[in-house]
Specification:
The protein contains nine helices and ten strands. It is α/β, with parallel strands linked by helices. It has one domain: Rossmann fold, CATH 3.40.50.150. An eight-stranded mixed sheet has the order 5-6-4-3-7-8-10-9, sandwiched between helices. Helix 2 (about 35-50) crosses helix 3 (about 65-75). The radius of gyration is 18 Å and the shape is globular.
Length: about 260
């Protein structure tokens, strides 16, 4: 048995597969038309319906194979969208999908371009973020050292990502730093604290295999008190709220104008 390497996309779980094999399996089972239609598209639509403004710049943090970012560009044709992940395998896949339309392939390695320094140490954004201007960019970056200027994004989305971040406190601080005034961060994770009766009721129409998978994901998540602790330690308690949303726990963080 081998242990997964640190990654934005997944938990540190013992698996019989190597890390690269596990990533490829994740891509094969998650980046499909059925998943896009049944899971990712409704998720994006739900968030966009929850906000009262049209975001012009969006960050999908822990973007994996890029499905959420692709959906956003499909429904917001005037928005600039960045998909960020630590996994080169995921970013390569996301760019290959985008490559079918753009006929070019770009992989941005922020940790190498800026020598691991946080953006505030540079004074301006690295040139590689600006010389190539599609509406959608995928880059490899550390969530605790985001290569973006202050107040850049109107909307930041994390789906199933936060529990897996290696440095949660610094990542929260970085997300808030790059969030624009009036913008919002949406963090979605499974509800570890959900009662058995509610879980059974919410999953009663699902097939047994999916229910079993959901139980594993719930066990891998953090509980509400742990999220409250991170928000308190980063000084964001007064700028956030946490609520149950079906099987999910929704953390909403905002920056006042």
């Amino acid at each position: 048995m081998r242990i997964q390497k640190d990654a934005v996309l997944g938990c540190k779980l013992s698996k019989s597969l190597s890390f690269s094999e596990d990533e490829e399996l994740y891509i094969a089972t998650s980046d499909t038309k059925i998943k896009m239609k049944e899971d990712y598209a409704p998720f994006v639509d739900k968030i966009l319906n929850d906000i009262s403004y049209i975001p012009k710049s969006i960050l999908d943090l822990g973007c994996g194979p890029g499905y959420i970012a692709r959906r956003i560009t499909g429904v917001l044709p005037n928005a600039m969208v960045f998909g960020v992940d630590k996994s080169e395998t995921m970013i390569n896949h996301a760019n290959k999908v985008m490559d079918k339309a753009l006929k070019s392939n770009y992989v941005f390695h922020s940790e190498f371009e800026i020598n691991g320094m946080a953006i505030e140490m540079l004074g301006k954004e690295p040139d590689y973020l600006n010389y190539y201007e599609p509406r959608l960019k995928y880059i490899i970056a550390d969530s605790a050292k985001l290569p973006f200027c202050n107040n850049k994004f109107d909307l930041i989305i994390l789906k199933g990502t936060f529990k897996c971040l290696e440095n949660k406190l610094d990542s929260l601080k970085e997300m808030y730093r790059v969030l624009s005034h009036g913008g919002e961060i949406f963090i979605y994770e499974f509800r570890k604290d959900i009662s058995e009766d509610e879980f059974v009721w919410l999953t009663k129409k699902m097939n047994p295999q999916k229910v079993k998978s959901l139980r594993r994901k719930l066990n891998c998540s953090l509980d509400m008190e742990e999220y409250k602790k991170y928000l308190l330690e980063t000084g964001l308690t007064g700028f956030s709220n946490i609520e149950a949303d079906g099987l999910d726990l929704k953390i909403r963080i905002y920056k006042n104008c």
